[in-house]
Design a protein that fits this description.
alpha/beta, Arc Repressor Mutant, subunit A, four-stranded mixed beta sheet, 10 strands, three-stranded parallel beta sheet, single chain, globular
Amino acid sequence: MGTLRIHFTGDDLARTTVAAAADPLWEVVFSRFRLRERVRRPAFRPWIDELRANPARTVQMRDGVALLEVLAPLAPYWPDFLTPVESRRGLETGLDTVMSTPPARIRAELRRLSQHRRLPGWISGIAAGQIDEMTRIGDCMRSYYAAAIEPCQHLVHAAVAADRAQRARDLLEGGVEGLLAGFGALMRWDAPVLEVSFDFDAELHLEGRGLKLVPSYFNQRNPVTFGDPGLQPVLLYPIENRFRWSHSGVSGKGLEDLLGRTRAAVLLALVVSTTTTELARALHISPAAVSRHTGVLREAGLIATRRDGTAVLHTVSPLGTALIEGHAIA
């Protein structure tokens, strides 16, 4: 195990932000890692059990699994072109970027990947940037996402929203240094360097570009960044396990049956106090929809709402907590 040392300047501190949601293509890669594990982590067992109970979904994932087995192995490196920064704007935007990657970049990154594993002969079509091969990559990753992640997307959004709300509180109370210190054992802030547990020793100089911290539901190990330090600096970090409500069940039972999918996601996200705007961004619904759902939850006594300056801050109530924990026991 090594250490990634990220070097900040004053400008970098001012330009450090937390992404509004998980990145769909990074989640594709990380979720495949979870499926490879021999020892199933409790937080992901309901998700894996749900996949096993739905053979049609596992068939739909098959081509994506085979592709990722080659292009994204459990190794210190996989090609950066699989997880472009554009995917933060949505799955399709990300896939369009993947499929239009310049062949010269693909070849360079595949050469680097070949240092860690032997590549099959069919990879030559991808290395040449052939349109049909790049389209196949997009189709495989799209099908994988639709089968593996999309059915539990509401839980991912809710868990990431709760983690992000905690980061926002850390930032408001302690500035960027408070934000970085809030990651605890994952990172160690010793100004002006952030030390991160990593697969090997590495240095990353931000040089005024800032750092985008991206929360991940399916990353369960160490924070991850691009292999190419010349790309926009990002750090994909695993959200805290307390925000992964695996006990709710990926299949949509429990709270969803009682409250409905979106309203259940709103309630779960409010384990950490969150504003209307934060909820809307994290759950990909409109502020008006958030207001309707929080209004119903408030009338039922499941959440409390208060003004915080110009923002409206929502928090789960003791009754709401008891409801969540009751479903955890069920």
